[in-house]
Each structure stands twice: as structure tokens, then as C-alpha cells.
Amino acid sequence: MLISLNNITKVYRSESLAVEALRGITLEVEEGAFSTIMGSSGSGKSTLMNILGCLDKPTDGSYLLKGEDVSRFRKDRLSRVRNKMIGFVFQNFHLLPRTSALENVELPLLYAEEKMSWKEMHKRAREALEIVGLGDRTEHTPNELSGGQMQRVAIARALVTRPSVLLADEPTGNLDSRTSLEIMDIFQQLNREGLTILMVSHEPDIARFSKRIIILRDGVIRSDKPNAARSATAALDAWKDETEMIEEEAS
């Protein structure tokens, strides 16, 4: 089992106030899974994602990642786990504005335990950009890219360390419908190649592209069901056909 959470709780304290963000989360994720975590604001999905990404530690309970209880790790060791085993994709891209796509993708390698030459770093970054279809945009800065292209760079940056799991927090939140489908198509392709993906989304239409949908409410799992994943490629083709038909009718 890649991920195993057992009775995870998270309590935020401020003076006399205590807020239970997570109240006993038990969850297992196998290698090669593609799951979506859903829930309204305040449901605990962001807190859960932070714990899964080793950005925060639970108040109680255990978190096994590839058999190791990372909930007991110190901050420096957690940092190494994040860099080596977890790739992150966020809603707002978080790219350095005056830095090329290639250099943005190389950044995680600067902090990797595995020391490599600049030549190897360039090679790894170019390969990651080619995976997301941006092999011809390596020298472009973010202000020379569309929103969808910037998210592709962010995905390449998440892939460059060859992580065990990709965590995506609202990866289509700032994108139009066509670009959202393109990003989901990339995720499905990566998942078919064996990458484990855990995604947070508030959009049911986006969640439908994953194989499992987990719904949180008030810090607990209210629903956890397999899903017959919709094909993003087919959805994108349908979108193009519908757009062409609308354009023909308008002309």
C-alpha cells in the first residue's frame, strides 16, 4: 500500500479556542490510483492534503507512506520526503516570473539529495516538459505562456523528481473548460503510465475523470466510492465538435 492513514486527527489551537479540522480519517491509497477528494469550504480537504503532502503533521494518528510512518518524522526528514516522493501541482502555478520554463522545472532538483550535474538537470527538465507537450517552450518565461501552458510547466516541475505520488490542489481552478480538459487528459495519461494521483477539486465534472471520489464533510469521510472514469480525450473531442458546430451555425 502506498498511502495508509489511520485515525488521523488535526486540531488547531488558538489560546482557549480549539478547532477540529480532521476527526479520525482512515484512508488507504494503492499505487497507481487516481482519486479525487471533494468537500465544501471547511470540510477539511485542504488540511488533509497538507498532511498527505508532508507539509503539516497530524495531531494524532499515523500516516504510512510506502510503509514508513512519516507522521513521526522531524521537519528536515519530512522535507527530504517531499522532495523525493511527492510532486505538487497548485491552482495558482507558483512559477518564478522572470525565469524560463526550463529553469522553473529544474528548481526541485537543486534541493534533491541526489546531486547531479547541470547537464543532467537540463536533460531531466527537458524530458518533463516534453511529457506535458512543452518541449518547444523551454526558454519561454511565464508571461509568454497561456494559463494552460503555465499549468503544464507546473506539472512538469512536479514530475521532474520522478515522485511516487502527484498531489494536485484545484489544478483546473484558474483554467477555462477546454484547458481543464487538456490538463485532465495529461493526468489520465500519467496515471495510465503508473503514476499515483490524488487531486482536490470542488468541481464534480472534474472529479468524474478520476477513478475514485472521496467526499469530506466536517472533518470526516462521508463517502468513498469507485468511479467509472470519464475519458478526458473523448470529452475534449466532443468539446471541439460542439464548438465547431456553434461556429458554423453562427457564420
Helix and strand string, N-terminal first? Answer: EEEHEEHEHHHEHEHEEH
Give start-end ranges of low-pLDDT stretches: none
Tell me, what's the shape? globular
Mean pLDDT, rounded to whole units?
93
Separation of termini? 55 Å
How many structural domains in the coordinates? 1
The CATH architecture term is: 3-Layer(aba) Sandwich
Structure annotation, total helices: 8
Keywords:
251 residues; single chain; alpha/beta; six-stranded mixed sheet; four-stranded antiparallel sheet; 8 helices
What's this, in brief?
The chain has 251 residues and is of the alpha/beta class. It is built from 8 helices and 10 strands.
Notes on the protein architecture:
With 251 residues, the chain is an alpha/beta fold. The chain has helices at residues 45-52, 75-85, 101-110, 118-131, 147-159, 177-192, 204-207, 232-250; strands at 3-14, 17-29, 34-38, 60-65, 68-69, 86-90, 165-169, 196-200, 212-217, 220-226. The strands form two sheets. It has a six-stranded mixed sheet, sandwiched between helices. The protein has a four-stranded antiparallel sheet with strand order 2-1-4-5, covered by helices on one side. The longest helix has 19 residues, at 232-250. The chain is globular and about 65 Å long. The N and C termini lie far apart (55 Å). The model has no long low-confidence stretch (mean pLDDT 93).
